[in-house]
Write a structure and sequence with these properties.
Layout: H1 3-7, H2 10-19, E1 24-26, H3 27-33, H4 39-51, E2 55-63, E3 66-73, H5 82-86, H6 90-117, H7 124-127, H8 140-158
Antiparallel strand pairs: 1-3, 2-3
Length: about 180
């Protein structure tokens, strides 16, 4: 299975996103984070990702006669490479982007729902939530430099370990040429 076909399935993409940030989760933990996904469906998609090497088993323990596995994301296997992306058809790109946006919306909905249940309500500033578009005039070299800068900034923080004052934050990027 090509990595685009593997990763850009709505449930599998959400599983991958739940494990971002060097998290280790059991299928039960994943179900707690994705309660709208039926358990059997979740197990099936976790199995597909594990068989493909996108998830690795980092622990096992016996629970009521069965084995509970703890998974970690294999970051190097969890992306669509530039060569594969270049070979995708326009319809494949549309489906891939639609899946990405749907997963982003699901994460946003979870934040909104949690805020609705919070006595203090939604607070984007407190939670560090933001969304915006910016138009930049850049030639190809300037754009390449911008991408390098963004990668450097993210790479410098990607290996931060969880800590008492740290919250896992999802950062999504979309770069599009303007008309």
């Amino acid at each position: 299975m090509a990595s685009a076909d593997l990763l850009l399935h709505p449930v599998r993409l959400r599983v991958v996103q739940a494990l971002l940030g060097d998290r280790t989760l059991t299928t039960g933990d994943l179900h707690a984070e994705l309660p709208d996904v039926p358990v059997a469906t979740l197990y099936r998609h976790v199995g597909v990702l594990a068989d493909a090497g996108v998830l690795e088993v980092v622990g096992e323990r016996r629970v009521r006669g069965s084995t509970e596995r703890t998974y970690r994301l294999v970051v190097a296997a969890a992306s669509v490479g530039p060569e594969e992306a270049a070979g995708m058809t326009p319809d494949q790109h549309r489906r891939a982007f639609g899946t990405f946006v749907a997963a982003l919306l699901a994460d946003f909905d979870r934040w909104v729902d949690a805020g609705a249940a919070d006595p203090d309500g939604l607070d984007p500033a407190r939670d560090g939530v933001g969304y915006r578009m910016t138009g930049l005039w850049l030639d190809d070299d300037e754009f390449a430099s911008l991408l390098d800068d963004v990668r450097q900034v993210l790479r410098a923080r990607r290996d931060n370990a969880p800590g008492a004052d740290r919250r896992r934050r999802l950062v999504g990027t979309v770069f599009l040429p303007g008309s």
